[in-house]
Amino acid sequence: MDAATITSWMREIDIAVRAERDHLVQLDAAIGDGDHGTNMVRGFEAVVQALDSDGGSPPGKLLILAGRTLVSTVGGASGPLWGSALRSGGRVLGDQATFDGMELVEVLAAALASVKDLGTAAVGDKTMVDALEPAVRVLRERVDGGASTEEAVAAAREAAEGGMQATVPLQASKGRASYLGERSIGHQDPGATSTVFILRALEQAVKEHP
Ligand code: ADP
Ligand code: MG
Description:
This protein is mainly α. The protein has one domain: Alpha Horseshoe (Serine Threonine Protein Phosphatase 5, Tetratricopeptide repeat).
């Protein structure tokens, strides 16, 4: 994997969140303020633009650029959270031109650590962490077990889907949804949902640029 994998990942996220914008808006309207779809679209549109005008940076630097762009374009919680996640992930890769499955695990582990650091959410709080943490765990298990990166990322995406579905019966204890108390129960978390799209996009990118 190389810079093209990262560019393709960000493009696929942009395509996915545009296609799912209304869905994400509806989910956020139920337990938040209804801006998650527009936040993600605004952010990743800007990321794709920033990457388009980049002149050949290595993958880690592209992730840092993407993260910085999210922080500066998205006002909601998801901007700084995904922004710092991508920046931390990018720092893992330094200036290297290529990366392997083990390094991808470290990128995503650093991204998760950064989300948890900044947002102080744990699994069960009904946030993006509920999808991202099991994805990173399964990714590591599969790569350690000798699976191809493509297989490992597909398994990670499935784990994220499981985590997303598991947010439905939970009561939110972090973010805007927590203001609703028990009324947040019975709704799927928007951030966990977009996290699944981000993992699906990674799956696609790894297939296109292994
Ligand atoms: P805002 O809540 O500021 O309107 P968004 O609607 O874009 O921002 O994002 C909402 C999503 O952000 C939630 O569904 C949740 O998954 C995630 N989120 C909110 N607060 C936190 C937190 N402290 N830690 C992790 N994720 C969080
Ligand atoms: Mg919102």
